[in-house]
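Postdoc handover notes: sequence design on the structure in folder B. Input tokens:
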């Protein structure tokens, strides 16, 4: 922990971590709040699902696009414009009753305009710390984001059920604007400028580490989404056990990230961390007892944040600085699609074989991720003793001969 204390004493690091976590806090609230609000207004979970699907499609499409725009127009401009549009879209969703197609259109707009805070902050990190501190910083970031998934769903559910769904959505707007402005006005956001990328959009995926990070991110988050569906199906929406087991799952990830953050990242690091995740989920198949699930999912969680830290570090070390934001955008899109796929597959299996089907789906996603990390181990960079900062952008310099 002494290493993390030194890291947080680095000028600006603690502030930028707190600001970006606050700005991203609505990510753990919006889907649930929209689901509850649209279901209450329309009386249909199917209609709510369509609005959520539109929002998710918007987020998936926007990830690499808005991230790339930060290199064209600057971080603050892109973040400010997307923040304003997203806040207006969610507020309108809350305050104005309209037909289902209009709700879907607003959900799409809210998804498309989700501020690319995650891509921005992970582009900024290499400019704030030295090469020795960068990998622990990625690990700390991946660990602390679990706070969002522990607290945000509980908070928004409490507000929506005890006060009202309109108030829950307005709370999201308040946090979105407050946290977003805190992050946007941070000195580092104005100080770091992303060079304009010279390559066409999507070309960054031709780099093996970026493609591997996107694929494994898809499988990792797909497994997590299947676990969430399985826990809810096991204990029911109103059961206290479901919330506690999911909290333990996230606490395992938090503990793993903090515990493994100082370990140098070699080519086999991803395989080992996905192996822990897979082992925990395979053990979860033995019994659906609350204590057994809590213990096995805690074990599985230990691999999550460390695996995400590898994704962030290997991406940073493998691309030019001008390509980092877009690369993280693609990884985010892969994770969003993974979450949708994991939930969908788990849902079908729950209907077919019961709650245990969701854990089978989760173990399947995790196992494929582990196999990808083993089979393509040569595609993972060796960052032991190496700077994980992005490759500097260089341009030809004209000389007089």
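Designed sequence:
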């Amino acid at each position: 922990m002494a290493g993390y204390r030194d890291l947080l004493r680095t000028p600006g690091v603690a502030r930028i971590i707190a600001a970006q976590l606050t700005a991203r806090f609505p990510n753990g609230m919006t889907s649930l709040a929209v689901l509850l609000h649209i279901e209450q207004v329309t009386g249909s979970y199917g209609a709510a699902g369509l609005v959520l699907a539109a929002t998710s499609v918007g987020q998936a499409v926007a990830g690499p696009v808005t991230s790339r725009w930060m290199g064209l127009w600057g971080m603050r401009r892109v973040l400010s414009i997307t923040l304003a549009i997203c806040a207006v879209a969610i507020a309108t969703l809350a305050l104005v009753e309209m037909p289902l197609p209009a709700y879907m259109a607003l959900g799409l707009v809210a998804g498309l305009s989700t501020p690319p805070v995650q891509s921005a902050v992970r582009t900024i990190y290499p400019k704030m710390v030295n090469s020795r501190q960068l990998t622990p910083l990625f690990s700390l970031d991946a660990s602390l984001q679990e706070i969002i998934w522990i607290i945000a769903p509980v908070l928004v559910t409490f507000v929506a059920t005890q006060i009202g769904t309109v108030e829950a959505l307005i709370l999201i707007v308040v946090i979105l604007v407050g946290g977003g402005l805190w992050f946007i006005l941070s000195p580092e956001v104005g100080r770091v400028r992303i060079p304009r990328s010279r390559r066409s959009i999507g070309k960054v995926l031709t780099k093996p580490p970026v493609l591997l990070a996107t694929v494994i991110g898809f499988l990792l988050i797909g497994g997590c989404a299947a676990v969430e569906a399985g826990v809810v199906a096991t204990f029911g929406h109103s059961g206290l056990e479901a919330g506690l087991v999911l909290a333990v799952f996230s606490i395992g990830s938090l503990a793993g990230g903090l515990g493994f953050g100082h370990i140098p990242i070699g080519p086999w690091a991803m395989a080992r961390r996905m192996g822990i995740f897979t082992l925990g989920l395979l053990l979860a198949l033995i019994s659906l007892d609350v204590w057994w699930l809590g213990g096995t999912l805690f074990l599985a969680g230990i691999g999550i944040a460390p695996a995400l830290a590898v994704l962030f570090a290997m991406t940073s070390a493998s691309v030019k600085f001008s390509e980092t934001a877009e690369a993280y955008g693609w990884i985010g899109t892969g994770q969003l699609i993974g979450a949708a796929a994991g939930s969908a597959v788990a849902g079908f299996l729950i209907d077919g074989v019961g709650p245990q089907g969701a854990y089978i789906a989760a173990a399947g996603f995790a196992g494929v991720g582990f196999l990808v990390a083993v089979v393509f181990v040569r595609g993972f960079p060796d960052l032991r003793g190496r700077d994980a900062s992005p490759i500097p952008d260089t341009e030809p310099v004209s000389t007089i001969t």
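Context for whoever picks this up: The chain is about 75% helix and 0% strand. Don't rerun without checking with the PI first.
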